[in-house]
Amino acid sequence: MSADLEKDLPWESSILGILYKQLLVHLKPLPTQVSLSGQTAVITGSNSGIGLEASRQLLQLGLSRLIMAVRSQASGDTAAEKLRTEFPNVDIQVWLLDMAEYGSIDAFEKQCRCLDRIDYVILNAAMQSSMFKRHNRTGHELVFQVNYISTVLLCMLLASVLKDKNHTGATIKPPVLTIVGSDTMYLSKFSADMPVFPRMDDPTGYERMRQYMDSKLLLMVFIRQLARQISPDDVIINVCNPGMVAGTGLGRNGNPNPGFAEKYVVPLFVKALGRKVQAGASVYIHALLGEGKRGHGSFISDWTIKPFARLLYTKEGQDLSDRLWKETMDELRSASEYGIEQLFVQ
């Protein structure tokens, strides 16, 4: 478990260590003795990039039903048709989900409750933005809204769905819910001694990568706390990191007038060092199938369990965790009709 790996942190969180893993730790093949026949997976952001490839890899393992959660019906239908051509005997459905809208998340959760079983969930949707943008309804900065607030809302709702279905005997083994994080959390310098939401919503000094790294650190902090309140016999929850992957569309919300570095240097860097989409997606599959209960509440990267960010091993990190939980519950209490604070009580 990540909680036991603090000793590995100096190397794992160093720039040299991150580059080593990016360049010299190679793709592990998909398991050959696994059949997902009769099972169901739900993947958000699955119309392109790593989400689409993860869908394909699960189908290669015999998955019987795939729910592709997408923001655009047209792009989802196009992606689904490609998969149906490759896998004609599989039930592939396209459902709408806008991660920036609480109402859409609630509606999606209701659809999931209507399924007879769900074995695997990958929460893959995320974003970066070069410019500070505020959500016109919630008032929160958009990267923070999508990468953290909406993601943990959907995570809690679906964890409840998975737990209920597991208890009714719909699945033989615990379902797995994996949330896509990032090893850039190691580089976050987020201050633990101040309120979280006001800091993330402050446009002063906004910087694209800092906001992204901070949002992924907060995601790991929250998921670790949530996992403590859910038995891995009910639902296995983990956070996985695909690494830097070329061609994902993550940086599509760029500056309309980019400077030289953003326009030329960064894309060249990602293209030169980025993993192939197949490799990034296979980390998702490993997080679903490869670690089992020992990976519950852990950070999975490079096809194995890795340490948390340094802050999570400190007293300040625990204080941050407690504060973040309270602020998040205060925000989400009115976001869902299901009484979110009652789903998982400390």
Entry summary:
It contains eleven helices and eight strands.
**Whole-number total of structural domains:** 1
Our measurement of the CA-to-CA distance between the termini, rounded to an integer number of angstroms, reads: 21 Å
| Corresponding CATH superfamily | NAD(P)-binding Rossmann-like Domain
Indicate the overall shape. globular
Percent helix range: 40-55%
The amount of beta strand, in percent, is: 5-15%
Task: Report the uncertain regions.
Answer: none
Strand order of the largest sheet: 3-2-1-4-5-6-7-8
* CATH fold annotation: Rossmann fold
Count of alpha/pi helices: 11
Q: Write the H/E string, N to C.
A: HHEHEHEHEHEHHEHHEEH
Proper CATH architecture = 3-Layer(aba) Sandwich
Query: Would you tell me the structural class of the helices and strands?
Result: alpha/beta
Q: How large, in whole angstroms, is the Cα Rg? A: 19 Å
Quick one: biggest sheet? 8 strands, mixed
Q: Can you give the mean pLDDT?
A: 89
For the record, what CATH class applies?
A: Alpha Beta
How many E strands? 8
Keywords: Oxidoreductase
Organism: Fusarium oxysporum f. sp. vasinfectum 25433
Protein name: Short-chain dehydrogenase/reductase family protein
GO molecular function, one term: oxidoreductase activity
